[in-house]
Fold:
Amino acid sequence: MTQNPGWGSGPHGGWGGYPPPPTAKPGVIPLRPLGAGEIISGSFSTLGRYWKRLGGVFLAVHGIWLLIVVAAAGIAFAAVREHVAPVFDVTDGRAPDREHLTPILLAGATLLVLLVVLGITSLALSASLHQTVLRNAVLGRPVAFRALWRATWRRAPAVAGTVVLSGLIAAAPMLMVMAVWLPMTFAGAADDSSPGTVVLLPFLLILTMPLMVWLTTLFGLAPAAAVMEPAGPVTALRRSARLVKGDWWRVFGVTMLAGLIAGLFAWLIQLPFHLVALFTLIPAVSDMSEGGVPPVGALFLFVLLVLVGGIGGQLVQTGFMQLVSGLLYVDLRIRREGLAAELLRAVQAGPAAPVPSPSPVA
Structure:
């Protein structure tokens, strides 16, 4: 009597009798739900395959930003040059005159605002860059420098909006504490009362940390949604919250693990540059201790090596974390919305087909 193998047995044993078909892996990840190790390895694979394009755009953006900062600092110094000496060369204990102090404070505030704007813009461009690369890396497609440059700038405003909004939302608990604490402190100082409010501030800020971490994780996938779908800032924040809901601890755990790995690799990249820079600085320190003039070449080489090591470490650390965030977004979309089938159709369409911008499934 012949027995039907059914689901429990078969010529190859195991469940169903036959091994499951292999999962398609056209790019850096298999098109199925991902484990933490696959997200980490997929991020490293993306950096390894596209490092030239990523580094080129990264250096171009930061080169432009450096020129802007140097030019702005030079213009600001030239504008307040005649006020510097009266403010900083006061020797009789008098406070500097307001007519000299005000222009310097205005110039400093302007430079500070410029640095904040450039920092937000740089972070937005970096996130847009890495998410754009990841869209191609998941499908295993190359990307040209010019196309990557255009796509990065095109989605940067939306990503900047998500960065600003998510930062304000995450910082809201701390801002609320400060809004209550500052009036209490000023009132206590005016009445010469106990300075207990000053001691209370660190404890209040510590109490807000869990809520800030929860909000940061909840909206951490918004830059990926802004580039991948694409979506506006508010829509991207809603998409991130909807995807993370129910998987918060998993997203938080993978992000923390990736942060530790990224910090370690950034340190390993910076370490040799810092060691070589330190050895080049030893002759300069010796000459200064003996009263001589430090060699300009050694000081320039020291600054250059530290700068190169810092840029390399930042490129790996920042880029790696953004790629991890993007792969978490892809993983959650695969688990909940069947994104793998849409990506597989794009792969089967061939390399000439445009990279899809997956829309959310209702």
